[in-house]
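Researcher: Let's do a round of design. I'm pasting the structure tokens now; please hold your answer until I've finished.
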């Protein structure tokens, strides 16, 4: 609500690393800071709320586990639709590749130099037959057979449970599953420790269940189990008394809870037994070999990332045995003095540079917001399940002012022993696919919401495009901007001719693929559109790149004669443009009775029947509020708070002055102002035909 107030009527820059989290409505939430939800200024998309609801409905019938690939494809299709219908009018995106390609002269003149980002290099740590069998068996046990009952006890509760609490319990189980999966891949050391903690936690929970108690805490579950381990009954009671935790009678839970807890405990014992004789650490051995043999790793500063603090501690300790006093560890537990050491030894901009450490081992706490570009090597000790996270990590060293010409990235992958490099790669890819396939819908937690098909993750993690942010790069409109710049600088006479082309200019050239078509370029205010009409077909809209590709012509290309049917095709394109730029009254969606705005409108419409007591200014104020509510201009929290205050009036609701006082107390005056975009509409002005091109046949 406060952010909406700040943004109303102003030009504001908001910066976020995660504009899109899990649903299309994450984008809508940002848009509503600058646009009305049901009357936006985005061309051809007045009702944003309806548009995003439609996208959400496409996902509703899909089971993330059973229909995983279809779910991923739908998410990607939604993203494309948001980009084509919404973001293209709001967003300017420039990749480093585009800047190097189209602004090379500018960056040379400014002395800016980008390092070359090498393709990520896979490091395969090879499991022997026994390790491989145990690794695969463990994945199956913790992903498929383990029920995580201890972390979801309220799902077994036979009393009434709030739907939000039920979902929170399910989420906790999913999070714990992902934790175990990540620890298994991170390091055998971290995984063993996690299994040990799970076993202790289950043992305590089962003992308390046998004693007739089930302890549930939304915020303090870890604290409760620490207290149980220390037999601190007094502290537990204090938590319960303060309402931070609740003690339930075990008789209120189904017998299935006991059975599933025993089942899970047995699986944990089985997992611990599987790993008790595994003493080798193939990942560490592979790393030590690479450090001694790989020329890129022998002398340079190295930055090693892992998500697990235990893996970081373990790895730091092991590396220090070989590289004594040259390894620096940084985790969430590290203090300011350690952070200073990181900057002094790894930040090329540090005022007082030092050479005390060559290897930095860090958790995610350093993956954003810190310069580490005295190094040109990032090593991902864990699989970066979210490719964007890998790009962020490499971004710590991939800086404009790096002293290096080349940036290196290394990613570890588990595989089965083989002398054949292709088989090593295939086995590694198979293991990653197994992780994602077995997790099904829970895989989105592993990839942190990024929609990734089970068979594409490995390829993305060894792709140079992932690091450069060009994974979905299409041909850029900068290509044509560059053509215009070149003409302006190299052929000013031609540039002047182009500037003074008459409106409604038309010509024809040969176009064998879609002969008999007319492409027309229209403008209304800042809005520009392209349409293509063909005989006996409805005119279709083209995006800029498609239209530019058809309009693009060689200087020596022969001009053709314009046929008579061109005029009919032009009329068809005109009609399509008029329809596209005519704001139709959107069919009002049936909005739920629980919608606060709908309920306030009902109250206000009743109030407006009795406005004799109101002044003209008060009537105007009331109409402003109604308009904002109808057009989706008020934040949900504001509407919810206002409705609650109105309902509190009870019998006084018939008094318009009381209603007005509540509105003025709960709706900030600024939220009744127009958005900046409404004051500067892009589609204002008369419709114009700029030019047309007819594509003739042979």
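Researcher: That's everything. Go ahead.
Model: Designed sequence:
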């Amino acid at each position: 609500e406060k952010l909406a107030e700040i943004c109303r009527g102003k030009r504001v820059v908001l910066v976020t690393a995660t504009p899109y989290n899990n649903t299309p409505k994450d984008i809508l939430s940002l848009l509503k800071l600058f646009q009305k939800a049901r009357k936006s200024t985005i061309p051809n998309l007045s009702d944003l709320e309806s548009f995003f609801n439609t996208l959400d409905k496409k996902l509703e019938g899909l089971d993330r586990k059973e229909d995983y690939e279809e779910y991923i494809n739908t998410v990607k299709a939604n993203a494309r639709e948001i980009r084509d219908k919404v973001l293209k009018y709001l967003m300017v995106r420039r990749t480093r590749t585009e800047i190097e390609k189209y602004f090379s002269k500018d960056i040379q003149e400014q002395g800016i130099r980008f390092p070359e980002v090498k393709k990520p290099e896979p490091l395969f740590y090879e499991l022997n037959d026994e390790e491989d069998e145990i690794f695969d068996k463990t994945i199956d046990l913790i992903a498929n057979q383990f029920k995580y009952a201890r972390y979801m006890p309220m799902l077994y509760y036979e009393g009434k449970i709030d739907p939000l609490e039920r979902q929170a319990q399910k989420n906790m189980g999913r999070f714990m599953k992902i934790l175990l999966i990540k620890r298994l891949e991170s390091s055998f050391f971290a995984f063993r420790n996690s299994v040990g903690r799970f076993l202790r936690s289950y043992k305590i929970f089962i003992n308390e269940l046998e004693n007739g108690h089930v302890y549930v805490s939304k915020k303090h579950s870890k604290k409760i189990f620490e207290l149980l381990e220390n037999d601190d009954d007094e502290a537990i009671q204090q938590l319960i008394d303060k309402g931070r935790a609740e003690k339930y009678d075990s008789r209120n839970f189904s017998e299935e809870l006991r059975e599933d807890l025993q089942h899970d405990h047995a699986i944990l014992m089985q997992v611990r037994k599987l790993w008790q004789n595994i003493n080798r650490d193939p990942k560490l051995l592979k790393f030590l070999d690479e450090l001694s043999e790989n020329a890129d790793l022998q002398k340079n500063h190295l930055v090693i990332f892992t998500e697990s603090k235990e893996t970081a501690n373990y790895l730091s300790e092991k590396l220090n045995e070989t590289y004594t006093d040259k390894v620096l560890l940084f985790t969430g537990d590290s203090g300011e003095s350690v952070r200073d050491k990181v900057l002094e030894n790894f930040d090329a901009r540090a005022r007082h540079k030092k050479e005390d450490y060559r290897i930095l081992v860090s958790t995610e706490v350093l993956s954003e917001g810190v310069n580490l570009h005295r190094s040109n090597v990032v090593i991902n000790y864990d699989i970066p399940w979210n490719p964007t996270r890998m790009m962020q990590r490499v971004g710590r060293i991939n800086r404009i002012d790096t002293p290096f010409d080349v940036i290196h990235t290394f990613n570890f992958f588990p595989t089965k022993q083989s002398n054949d490099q292709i088989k090593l790669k295939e086995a590694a890819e198979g293991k990653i696919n197994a992780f994602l396939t077995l997790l099904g819908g829970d895989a989105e937690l592993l990839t942190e919401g990024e929609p990734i098909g089970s068979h594409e993750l490995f390829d993305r993690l060894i792709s140079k495009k992932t690091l450069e942010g060009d994974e979905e790069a299409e041909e850029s409109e900068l290509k044509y901007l560059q053509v215009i710049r070149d003409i302006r600088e190299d052929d000013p006479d031609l540039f002047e001719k182009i500037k003074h082309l008459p409106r409604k200019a038309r010509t024809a050239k040969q176009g064998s693929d879609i002969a008999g078509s007319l492409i027309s370029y229209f403008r209304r205010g800042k809005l520009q559109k392209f349409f293509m009409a063909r005989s006996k077909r409805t005119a279709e809209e083209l995006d800029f790149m498609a239209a530019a590709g058809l309009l693009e012509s060689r200087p020596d290309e022969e001009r053709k004669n314009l046929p008579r049917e061109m005029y009919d095709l032009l009329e068809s394109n005109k009609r399509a443009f008029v329809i596209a730029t005519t704001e139709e009254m959107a069919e009002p969606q049936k909005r739920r009775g629980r919608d606060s705005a709908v309920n306030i409108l009902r109250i206000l419409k009743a109030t407006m029947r009795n406005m004799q007591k109101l002044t003209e200014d008060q009537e105007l104020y009331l109409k402003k509020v109604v308009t904002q509510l109808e057009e989706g201009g008020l934040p949900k929290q504001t509407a919810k708070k206002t409705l609650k205050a109105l309902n509190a009036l009870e019998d006084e609701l018939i008094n318009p002055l009381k209603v007005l006082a509540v509105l003025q107390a709960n709706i900030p005056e600024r939220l009744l102002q127009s958005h900046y975009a409404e004051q500067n509409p892009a589609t204002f002005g008369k419709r114009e035909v700029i030019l047309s091109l007819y594509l003739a046949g042979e």
